[in-house]
Amino acid sequence: MSTHAEIKRVTVPQLRACKGQRKIAALTAHNFSTARIIDEYLDFILIGDSTAMVAYGLPNTLSITLEQIAQHTAAVVRATKHACIVADMPFGTYQESLEQAFRNAAYLVSHGADAVKLEGGAVMAPTIEFLVARGIPVLAHVGLMPQYVNTMGGYLAQGKTPDAAARILGDAKAHEQAGAFGVVLEGVAEALGTEITEQLSIPTIGIGASVSCDGQILVTEDMLGLSGERVPKFVKRYANLEESMRSAVQRYADEVRASKFPEPQHCFAVKRS
């Protein structure tokens, strides 16, 4: 009989209980290898619609499909044991009706997601309430919303004027009242991020918001230096894995061409004198 203690995933209620107790650390993942490495250090992992850009090279998040997010979610679930798993709902999969939103959110849950994330202002509060009442936890997302890139005119910081700040604060409060367990604040003025965090009873997860937020999330490729030279202002690079990978691949290619790899220890049934 095994004596090892069972590793239990972080739950949505545990994430919510972090408010005022400790900070929440989160990153994105879209493949088995990355998720396996980052799992033990994080409270939740997001299968973001940013997968469209970092995994498929698409210009924005708008064209990734529900089926693609579901398959990436399943891969991340298989790789992990600890972190809560949150899946992004792609553009066009929840805005049409409450029934559409539930059907597609349930599809992501069936692939292993513990919760879903959706973008939008107060207009999405009824959708959040509908999903939560039917057993699907929801992480809201306000401020700079990549799925609204066309109406916002680009990836522009939000909440810089009193009216804009008041609107985003109202959005966050509406989502809290609707039953969201947390709110992602992206690309908002620092003072606004602090104010929303102070006024909500649920955790705020910052990405380009404020250090006062109850937690932080980044796109993993950005913080590891795997997304090219241009990164958002709010990203801190904790490594330069692109440089390391280039160096390793160059060494490999050089050794192959010089017949230095494989060596005898990398081969089978090598006769030795």
Automatic annotation (TrEMBL):
Keywords: Cytoplasm, Magnesium, Metal-binding, Methyltransferase, Pantothenate biosynthesis, Transferase
Predominant location category: cytoplasm
Cofactor names: Mg(2+)
Keyword flag Metal-binding: yes
Active site, UniProt feature: 186
InterPro entries xref list: Pantoate_hydroxy_MeTrfase, Pyrv/PenolPyrv_kinase-like_dom, Pyrv_kinase-like_dom_sf
Residues engaged in binding Mg(2+): 49, 88, 119
Gene3D superfamilies (UniProt xref): Phosphoenolpyruvate-binding domains
Recorded GO MF terms: 3-methyl-2-oxobutanoate hydroxymethyltransferase activity; magnesium ion binding; methyltransferase activity
A GO-annotated cellular component: cytoplasm
Enzyme Commission number: 2.1.2.11
Protein residues bound to 3-methyl-2-oxobutanoate: 49-50, 88, 117
A biological-process GO annotation: methylation
Superkingdom in the source lineage: Bacteria
Swiss-Prot/TrEMBL catalytic activity: (6R)-5,10-methylene-5,6,7,8-tetrahydrofolate + 3-methyl-2-oxobutanoate + H2O = 2-dehydropantoate + (6S)-5,6,7,8-tetrahydrofolate
Signal peptide limits: none
Cofactor note: Binds 1 Mg(2+) ion per subunit.
Biological pathway: Cofactor biosynthesis; (R)-pantothenate biosynthesis; (R)-pantoate from 3-methyl-2-oxobutanoate: step 1/2
Record's subcellular location: Cytoplasm
Keyword Magnesium: yes
Described purpose of this protein according to its UniProt entry: Catalyzes the reversible reaction in which hydroxymethyl group from 5,10-methylenetetrahydrofolate is transferred onto alpha-ketoisovalerate to form ketopantoate.
Oligomeric and partner information: Homodecamer; pentamer of dimers.
HAMAP family the UniProt entry points to: PanB (MF_00156)
Family classification: Belongs to the PanB family.
Official protein name in the record: 3-methyl-2-oxobutanoate hydroxymethyltransferase
Organism: Sheuella amnicola
Lineage: Bacteria, Pseudomonadati, Pseudomonadota, Betaproteobacteria, Burkholderiales
